[in-house]
Design brief:
By secondary structure, this protein is of the alpha+beta class. It has two domains: about 60-215, Aminopeptidase, CATH 3.40.630.30; about 225-435, 3-Layer(aba) Sandwich (Aminopeptidase). The chain contains ten helices and 20 strands. It has a twelve-stranded mixed β-sheet with strand order 2-4-5-8-9-19-10-18-17-14-13-11. Strand 15 (about 345) and strand 16 (about 355) form a beta hairpin. Helix 8 crosses helix 9 (about 300-310). The protein starts with 9 loop residues before the first helix and ends in a 27-residue tail after the last strand. Bound molecules: coenzyme A (COA). Coenzyme A binds near residues 48 and 116. Adds a myristoyl group to the N-terminal glycine residue of certain cellular proteins. It catalyses: N-terminal glycyl-[protein] + tetradecanoyl-CoA = N-tetradecanoylglycyl-[protein] + CoA + H(+). One of its GO terms (molecular function) is glycylpeptide N-tetradecanoyltransferase activity. Belongs to the NMT family. Its EC number is 2.3.1.97.
Length: about 475
């Protein structure tokens, strides 16, 4: 381990970004200097008092093992039937996201406590539609929307969720869930509530005979399967500057930055249109043929595609936006691309009360079908195609007042991030699979410089 006195290591930086883009966005949309190269985990395995007791790979494991579950012996009969004991002033609750009251309480908890913003000026503008999309996909379990309340007042002070999310990891299909929205009230931090929530959601998921879980975090835990980096593409640079998201790079003026980041008004891809319900079958096939490119991907049924990619009942709420390309002659859908929207509310700013934020989600293109990441010639064709698809998606995003378009270095995004002027962010996202051992998967960042790499990543799954 090298000495880096006064300098931040990548591990520090990864550890600081508590939640996805946030720490990142608050600091600046793009960093001028690359973060330091990977050095070491932030603490020793022994200091992970909770995680060292869990079936997760250790930092010092070498990649010379057989991939698969870590604990494959446990059965439902071994799982406790009662919730874990909790401090006497608190009680477990299962949130009913069909009820306005519970939805409002979840909204309030996440609104006030999910963002680590020192000035408390930015808040996630969650909506009912967003929660319905994120927490109620096909097969969702009421029992996996787990909260903790103060017994006396009923106040919700912590939350964790699981939703079904089956995975393929290097050819192995794995029944799994995605764990997300872990949140503890700011005044109740460092009291070991997070491990309790994690154990309780594990217990409830295990009772359904599911033993693996996908989760992601800016925090470094034992042991990331992959690490991706955020990229941010300003669509409305002037506004981002006014709310404090963007700073003026040396040698630039506001006018030059606006000129550099302005997109054309109209999309260019021939046959580009909004996805319709009747496209679900084709998009389903395209998605499933496409995802074999990646070493980890999400298995989707047609119902899943309808929910996650088409938007299902949430179509009108404008959370997920999906476009397809239809061949003019054959009428066949050859490509699709989607992004989801989760804006920020901005407090205490005289000029703006929100920032529109879009996140690149799933896409697929016939251009890359049957080809593999290592095939250079087909990668060049794909690069060209993805550049035009993502550019058009950003033009659509701009039309609905999105100010910044975010994408990770996952999927094939490294092929277009630099060319389409995504600034590399400070934020890193680590991917984990609970109770599963697998070899490291490339996350689209260069091992030594941490810049976006020139080749695609093996991470095909997108977490919210
Ligand atoms: C993440 C959060 C719930 C952790 O709660 P906390 O009160 O700081 O931590 P606790 O004392 O309860 O628990 C600490 C343990 O949880 C682990 N932990 C912290 N953040 C974690 C995360 N995001 N995922 C899994 N484990 C996490 C710690 O590593 C530690 O375990 P260890 O002793 O093995 O190292 C809390 O900081 C929070 O609500 N943050 C804002 C929302 C957020 O960032 N959520 C996570 C999204 S990925």
């Amino acid at each position: 381990m090298s000495e880096n006195k006064g300098q931040k290591t990548l591990a520090d930086l990864k550890d600081e970004s508590t939640k996805k883009t946030l720490a990142d966005l608050f600091q600046r949309l793009a960093v001028e200097q690359e973060p330091e190269a990977p050095d070491a985990p932030p603490k020793s395995m022994d200091e992970y008092k909770f995680w060292k007791t869990q079936p997760v790979p250790r930092f010092d494991e070498k990649d010379s093992f057989k991939e698969g579950p870590i604990d494959a012996e446990k059965t439902i009969a071994d799982v406790r039937t009662e919730p874990y004991p909790i401090h006497s002033s608190f009680e477990w609750t299962t949130l009913d996201l069909e009820s306005d009251e519970d939805l409002d309480q979840l909204y309030e908890l996440l609104y006030d406590h999910y963002v680590e913003d020192h000035d408390a000026t930015f808040r996630f503008a969650y909506s009912r539609t967003f929660f319905n999309w994120a927490l109620k996909p096909p097969g969702w379990e009421h029992n996996w929307h787990i909260g903790v309340r103060v017994k006396d007042t009923g106040r919700l002070i912590a939350f964790i969720s699981g939703v079904p999310c089956d995975l393929t990891i290097r050819g192995n299909d794995i029944k799994s869930v995605e764990i997300n929205f872990l949140c503890v009230h700011k005044q109740l931090r460092s009291k070991r509530l997070a491990p309790l929530l994690i154990k309780e959601v594990t217990r409830r998921v295990n009772l359904k005979n599911i033993w693996q879980a996908l989760y992601s975090s800016g925090t470094v835990l034992p042991k990331p399967l992959s690490t991706c980096r955020y990229g941010h593409r300003p669509l409305n640079w002037g506004k981002l500057y006014e709310v404090g998201f963007s700073s003026l790079p040396q040698g630039e003026t506001k006018a030059s930055m606006i000129a550099k980041t302005t997109l054309s008004n109209e999309t260019k891809t021939v046959g580009w249109r909004k996805m319709k319900e009747e496209d679900i079958d084709t998009v389903y096939k395209l998605y499933n043929d496409w995802r074999v490119r990646y070493e980890i991907s999400q298995i989707m049924t047609k119902e899943d595609v309808k929910h996650w990619i088409y938007g299902g009942k949430q179509q009108d709420g404008k959370v997920i936006h999906t476009y397809v390309v239809e061949d003019k002659d054959t009428k066949r859908v050859t490509d699709f691309i989607s992004f989801y929207v989760l804006p920020f509310t901005v407090l205490q700013n005289e000029l703006h009360d929100n920032v529109g934020i879009a996140y690149l989600y799933y896409y697929a293109s016939e251009t890359g079908l049957g080809k593999f990441i290592k095939d250079e010639e087909s990668q060049e064709l794909l690069k060209k195609r993805l550049k035009s698809l993502v550019n058009d998606a950003m033009i659509e995003a701009k039309k609905i007042n999105i100010d910044v378009f975010n994408a990770l270095s996952s999927q094939d995004n490294a092929l277009f991030l630099d060319d389409l002027k995504f600034g590399a962010g400070d934020g890193f996202l680590n991917y984990y699979v609970f109770n599963y051992r697998a070899k490291h998967i490339e996350g689209g960042i260069d091992d030594t410089t941490n810049a976006f790499s020139k080749t695609s990543s093996g991470v095909g799954v997108v977490l919210l």
